Amino acid sequence: MRLLTTTAIATLIALPAFAADKELTVFDWAGFEEPSIFQAYIDKHGDSPTYAFYGDDDEAFQKVASGFKADVAHPCSQMVSKYRDAGLIEPWDTAKIPNFDKIDPRFLDSPVFKDDGGVWFIPTDWGAAAIAYNTETVPAEDVATLQVFTNPKYQGRTSLPDSSDDVWALAYLATGTTDWTDVTDEQFQAAADWLRQAHQNVAAYWADPSEQAQLMASGAVDVTWSWNDVLSLLQAEGYPVGFQREATEGSSTFFCGYVNLKGGPGSEDKAYDFINAWLEPSAAKGLLDTIGYGHTSTEAMATIADEPAVAMGLAQIDAPVLAQTPNDPAQREKQLAEFEKIKAGF
């Protein structure tokens, strides 16, 4: 097995903050501070924004709700309603966003994102959650099904994200539910029972892609439920990683974007410059190369359509797909509470 070098692993560990342009603070997932994604902002202002980082959506929301000040934040779609309901965000003025109409309409197809009150969310990036595995130690037939996560053969050899949304997407798929916007009590219970089984095989719950990459690179785990970014990180180092999106039960997709936080301490004009830089077609290549994700702009996606990473991690598949779109906030809180119990062994 080939391992990441010590230097390469060190580069995957995100700093807690990245200080640059003090007039714009971006609250974001670690890794998205990559300049090639928003180069037009740097070209205009001479520096990157100041970044503060978080590891998961719920952590980010709680921090903002507790008074943390930033100008923009980067939640995934199912979190936007929480920010709206808590009164933490304000609408974007799309007249100041020239490429807004290039965003694929399917990413705005919800009154949570766009209603008579305005546009509350600018979707920018999307990806897949699927099985990442060591191709040298895991036969392809084993990952042809999501039941690999409950297979006794892999006890102590799997990893799951410490993210309620992602693990429930996996559990629903594994138990035959492909739409989480209308889940019955029976479907919820079946998924919870499956997650408890899967928990028995888990060596560790990963908190961010760098931790997940290290778990796989060190040989600690062979199979993990993964986002695209880990695929990009490990492939760049020559690690033998596969990404199975066409398991019998399917895989998941998600998309994220930026919200305009109320009372941001920085420049509103620079917040728009940042969004406009993200929506430049040239941003798609930087996003794909560094994170492995697709762009929400149809014009931007057209510039990377022939890239191998698109074919492997973002192309249409012949398998069920659970789209992580906005779902019932009460159901989401129920899932979060149950996941905490499962991780604690109850």
UniProtKB/TrEMBL annotation:
Gene3D superfamilies in UniProt: Periplasmic binding protein-like II (3.40.190.10)
SUPFAM superfamilies: Periplasmic binding protein-like II
Signal peptide, first to last residue: 1-19
Record keywords: Signal
Protein name as annotated: Spermidine/putrescine-binding periplasmic protein
Organism of derivation: Paracoccus haematequi
